[in-house]
Design brief:
2% strand; single chain; globular; 19 helices; 496 residues
Length: 496
């Protein structure tokens, strides 16, 4: 029967294929490196589909878990390493692996001498090594059954992001890479502090460990993990590294913002809240505090929208606000409004596909024109009609226009805030609606300025990017419609 098939084999292949692909791609150049990266990332997608098939067959409410003692110097459960597949894992895996494949496909042509923004003759071996290692790290993080194993892959994402942000080896890129490394690693120090507390008082690193320690220790560990997550997810006051990271190649910006580094932070908090839900929800002030901090980040990110002339930096600040959406929902979930938790998980995947689409459209524009400046680009719609359409779909998806992806998660987030009730609930709903309304207005204005009107000199020679790049955009347009349907079966019920 299907449930007797070794799901561990599929999970192991899902982790192993991108890692092996990274090592092989590092030895190749140009088209050979493209081929290796595409084949091994496609293999990971096939392994993921097989794993989801097994998980769905045995029942999505029943986690699949296996472990083995790898660190005998740690006592009991603390020594266990292994694999965990549940609804949270599947959502994060779909985002990390599916977007990983699309980014690899896009990169095959983007990194070429024909790119007018950054003509690239070689370096693909190194590029794919770090990108596929990034995919490996995200897969490992998503399937980790405890906080210690998650921390190992968490730190690997930090190293990969530093290398990829610095890929062009310019002064700007190197400075941005080191800034991201330092700011996110500072959060990692607090992650270690939380691990020490949990081992000292609970004896292991399980996601439920916060529920088994004294209240004061639980609050301290929760706050340490929260700040670590804020640093990773570029929330206030750690947000400044993310706009600077736009010095990376645009496909890397897409993966960094939509599927990987920043989503690791929100996934950590989702795991902790889900694993220790009873203890955390018993102190609703913690969750409300998380939601209020998220709203503040959302409004600060919104303010910076109006100061940007670079399309990628605009999208970077949009990512900061949308990660605030996820923390908003997680905070409501931690305060006892489970609908908020489910909405935050849904937003991880709906935002992931929509933001990837926007970044890759901007990458195609830069490829064709050599520019990303809002003030220098006019009338691109006449020269790049498909890109204009794809940008419009991504814009409406991110801003929550029905029936596109983020509409559904945004509606649930507002419903969760309404369900909270009281003065705090009213303020949260008001702030959320203000941010969403002004963001839609500004994105619509930017889209109108870039794609309509008289064609500027910078845009006059532009043509649609090659078929491979356009094909990736087509896939993402479709995923902007299907994302909620993909995620809904895996949203977990409220823990008993």
């Amino acid at each position: 029967m299907m449930e007797t098939v070794g799901w561990q084999w599929y999970a192991g292949m899902l982790l192993l294929l991108p890692a092996v692909g990274a090592l092989l791609a590092a030895t190749q150049r140009r088209r050979a490196a493209d081929l290796v990266a595409i084949v091994f990332t496609l293999g990971a997608v096939v392994a993921l589909l097989a794993l989801i098939g097994v998980f769905s067959y045995v029942g999505v409410v029943s986690p699949l878990q296996t472990s083995v003692a790898l660190m005998p110097w740690l006592s009991g459960a603390a020594a266990q390493f292994g694999l965990l597949i549940d609804g949270l894992s599947v959502i994060m895996l779909v985002v990390a692996v599916a977007i990983g494949l699309l980014v690899v496909l896009f990169s095959a042509e983007y990194l070429s001498p024909r790119n007018r923004e950054h003509a690239t003759e070689d370096g693909k071996g190194s590029y794919y090594f770090w990108l596929l290692l990034f995919v490996t790290a995200m897969v490992g993080l998503a399937m980790s059954p405890n906080l210690l194993q998650m921390f190992i892959f968490w730190e690997l994402t930090t190293i990969c992001s530093w290398a990829l942000i610095s890929f062009y080896n310019t002064r700007e890129a190197n400075a941005a890479g080191y800034k991201a490394l330092v700011m996110t690693a500072s959060g990692g120090v607090l992650f270690v502090g939380a691990l020490v507390l949990l081992y000292a008082f609970a004896g292991d690193f399980g996601f439920d460990a916060l529920a088994r320690v004294p209240t004061g220790v639980m609050i301290a560990a929760f706050l340490m993990l929260l700040v670590a997550a804020w640093a990773k997810a570029a929330q206030l006051p750690f947000f400044t590294w993310l706009p600077d990271a736009m010095a990376a190649p645009t496909p890397i910006s897409a993966y960094l913002h939509a599927a990987a580094m920043v989503k690791a932070g929100v996934f950590l908090m989702a795991r902790v809240i889900y694993g220790s839900y009873g203890a955390i929800s018993a102190l609703p002030e913690l969750g409300i505090g998380v939601a209020i901090a998220a709203v503040i980040t959302m409004l600060v990110g919104l303010y910076f929208y109006f100061l940007q002339d670079d399309l990628k930096r605009l999208l970077a600040f949009s990512t900061i606000t949308h990660l605030g959406y996820v923390f908003f929902g997680l905070g409501l979930g931690a305060a006892g409004i489970w609908l908020g938790f489910q909405a935050s998980l849904l937003h991880i995947i709906t935002h992931g596909f929509a933001k990837t689409l926007l970044f890759l459209v901007v990458g195609g524009i830069a490829y064709a024109t050599g520019a990303r400046s809002i003030s220098r680009l006019r009338g691109l719609g006449a020269r790049m009609p498909w890109s204009a359409f794809a940008f419009g779909v991504g814009l409406m998806a991110v801003c929550g226009i029905p029936p596109l992806s983020c509409f559904w998660s945004k509606v649930l987030l507002v419903a969760a805030a309404v369900k909270l009730g009281g003065g705090v609930g009213v303020l949260l709903v008001a702030a959320f609606v203000i941010e969403a309304t002004l963001a839609f207005f500004w994105f619509l204005r930017v889209g109108q300025r870039v794609f309509f009107g008289e064609t500027s000199d910078q845009a006059s020679k532009a043509t649609e990017p090659p078929a491979l790049l356009t094909g990736v955009l087509v896939a993402l347009v479709i995923l902007c419609l299907l994302a909620p349907l993909i995620a809904l079966p895996f949203l977990p019920p409220q823990p008993i």
